[in-house]
Each structure stands twice: as structure tokens, then as C-alpha cells.
Amino acid sequence: MTTVFARPAKLLTALLVGCLALPAFAADRKPIPIPSAPKEKTYTSLRAVQYCEVWLFQGTPEEGIAGVYFNTSDLNNSANVNDTCPASMWDKVSVEALKSQYEVIGAYKNGPRGWTMDTLVIPVGPVETFEGIEARWMGEGKLPKGVSLKVAHMEPYEPLKSHRKSTFTFKKGKPVFILEDPDGTPWVMQAFGKIVDPSLTYDGLKDLAGKLKPAPGWKYRVAVLEKDLIISTPEGYNWIVQDELQNTYDACKEGACNFQP
């Protein structure tokens, strides 16, 4: 999932702890392992599965900075099939170590997070190992030229365009968790975050309205699907938004959804 950040002054709000130093590259640093030919992969039974992402940043403000991310889904789960980011492994991943091993200007640990969809189809790279945890390349987020690397996630309730090739499926009879914007457009949660609120769980999403304070005109609701909901990227992008807990939602507009849930 490749993201182009469109409103740099507002969208990026969380400090990248320990990743802003710009050290001279050591001779033994490795290039970021970006695949030349990503292969499409289908992930199934994802709902409530926990995952994490390693982000590696390269480039300059003058030429543009890219954040390449690697996702743990379907890996590291021999002890628990629903946890691909065990704390015992994730805690050992060090931002400083990543910076010393790769030709980067910064690094970031994104997670733990949890999927809310049932199936995902997306191009991925081969398995890479970061400080003992395995992950696959899934895409990159791009900062506009002239923007420095200062912060890591989106401003709540500020939509942006996410350039990627992906298909999400939410199965009939299951709940979907929706932010509805002032125009009545539903934005369906693709993943919840445990970074701001570590106590947040999939089962708690039905009561999430009590934790959120949406921007004016936005509201949170839960719907049970009467048929499969499919969210795709027919134009090569979709619109996404986050709430204040860093839960991420995809918009049902511009042909992205097969119906309005």
C-alpha cells in the first residue's frame, strides 16, 4: 500500500522517537530491501489478527522522502496464529539498531495493530528479518518534496489519498466499524491501533464510540453486513482517514466499495 501524503502541515503529527538524526552512512550499511517485482499474495482469516510494521526512511527533503514499510502478517505466529507480532519479539526491535544496519535517515516501529477485514489481496516482497522479527515489504509512504522527516502518523479526521493496489473483503454477517463524515460517506475501519491505547482490542471496537471525540460532523457507528463488502482501488488509490487512536479507515467513494454499508 503506497501512500502519498497530501497535506504535510497537518497530516503528520507523532514524533518519530529516536529516528531524526542524520548520521553519515557506514560502509557496512545495507540498502533497504525493496523488491523489484512484488508478487500478489492473498491473506485470509485476518479479522482480529495482530500485526506490526517496520518503517525505513530514505531520501532528502529536496528530492522527497519515502517511508518503506514491512508488515508481519502471516509470520512469527507459531505460538499464536492470531498474533504475528509477539511482544517478546517486537520489544527487541530497536530503532537505533535499524538505523545502524540500513542506509536510512530514520526508522519507526508502527504497532501493534490489528486487522478488521477478513481477506486482503496485495503485492508483497520476500520475507525479511529485522532484529529477529520477520516481515514482508508492502509498500511505501511518500512525503512531498520540501517536507522534512519530523513526524510519523496522520492528523485525526484529516483524509488523505493512499496510492496502492489492494482488495479488502469484509464477510457477510460480520460487523464493520464505520466513521461517517459530514457528507454521509462511510469510512470503513481496515485496522485498529494499540499504540495510543494499548488496552484496545477487536472485541472492544463495538463500544469505541465511547472513547472517540470525532471532529464536527463525523460520527462512529457499527453495522452488520448483509452481504460481502469489497473495498478495492479501481483508480490505483483510495482515500483513508484516522481517528485520534490511530485506527485507520478506507472511504466508500469514487468506486472503491461494491456498496455503501
Description of the molecule:
The chain is mainly beta. It has 2 domains: 128 residues, no CATH class; 92 residues, no CATH class. It is 6% helix and 38% strand. The protein is built from 3 helices and 16 strands. The strands form 2 sheets. Strands 1-8-4-3-5-12-16-15-9 form a 9-stranded mixed β-barrel. The N terminus is likely disordered.
Q: How many helices?
A: 3
User: Would you report the number of β strands?
Assistant: 16
Helix-strand topology string: EHEEEHHEEEEEEEEEEEE
Sheet with the most strands? 9 strands, mixed, barrel
Count of individual domains:
2
Helicity range: under 10%
Strand content: 35-45%
Instruction: Give the overall silhouette.
Output: globular
Chain-averaged pLDDT: 88
> What value does the Rg take, in angstroms?
18 Å
Helix-strand makeup class: mainly beta
What's the N-to-C terminus distance?
A: 23 Å
Low-pLDDT ranges: 2-25
